[in-house]
Write a structure and sequence with these properties.
mainly beta; seven-stranded antiparallel β-sheet; four-stranded antiparallel β-sheet; Jelly Rolls
């Protein structure tokens, strides 16, 4: 695959990770387009859906709210939860190894763009019991 074929990606054009709580389509990752310092993609959460409190050991995360509204929790440096209502245009920074969670509290779908640095935390998602790989052709 040439560089020209990997520079521009739509979520619909890549395989997705599906879970009971939603879906992640990695549009930037080492195996998608050769990115080495970070990975990222589009997360879709249905109404009332979200991912439970978790962390990414050794990695930072950026969460950008594209659409919808929700409740975002990020623990502070003392391990206390900081909770905010978030909506379109909000950027959430999750420091290295901090626990966090997201819940769609809106009346419609919630879409996020997430970035992990360094790349790799997304690979651990394959070990979750509700993980399903959805082919882009499906």
């Amino acid at each position: 695959m040439s560089d020209r074929e990997t520079l521009f990606r739509y979520a619909k054009d890549v395989d997705s990770f599906a879970f009971d709580w939603g879906r992640l389509a990695l549009t930037v990752a080492p195996d998608v387009n050769g990115a080495v310092r970070f990975s990222g993609g589009v997360v879709d959460l249905g109404v009332g859906q979200g991912h439970a409190r978790h962390n990414h050991p050794g990695a930072e995360e950026i969460i950008f709210v594209i659409s919808g509204t929700g409740e975002q929790m990020v623990e502070d440096e003392h391990g206390s939860p900081v909770i905010r209502e978030v909506g379109p245009g909000c950027t959430i920074y999750v420091p290295e190894s901090r626990f966090h969670s997201t819940l769609n509290t809106g009346e419609g779908p919630m879409q996020l763009f997430v970035v992990y640095s360094p790349a790799g935390p997304e690979l651990a998602l394959r070990e979750l019991p509700d993980f399903r790989l959805v082919s882009r052709s499906a």
